[in-house]
Design a protein that fits this description.
Layout lengths: L12 H4 L3 H13 L5 H7 L10 E3 L8 E3 L2
Antiparallel strand pairs: 1-2
Length: 70
């Protein structure tokens, strides 16, 4: 007997009433304030990771440096 795993995903953005524009604005703020890296935002949108996208922005502290997530 062969067993196949099934993955079910629910899109909750419609339930929350968030438009794509609002979602992207939230991601933009989170990235700029060092709360999320762009790969975390991409994962929430079911997108593949980008190159060098595991870096956190340091613009919140006045520096243009970026740190890499460990």
């Amino acid at each position: 007997m062969t067993t196949t795993a099934t993955k079910i995903q629910f899109e909750t953005n419609d339930i929350l009433g968030i438009t794509p524009r609002e979602r992207y604005d939230i991601y933009d703020l989170a990235i700029k304030n060092g709360l999320m890296c762009s790969n975390e935002c991409r994962a929430r949108e079911n997108l593949a990771p980008g190159e060098a996208s595991d870096q956190f922005s340091q613009t919140w502290n006045g520096s243009s440096e970026q740190t890499t997530e460990s």
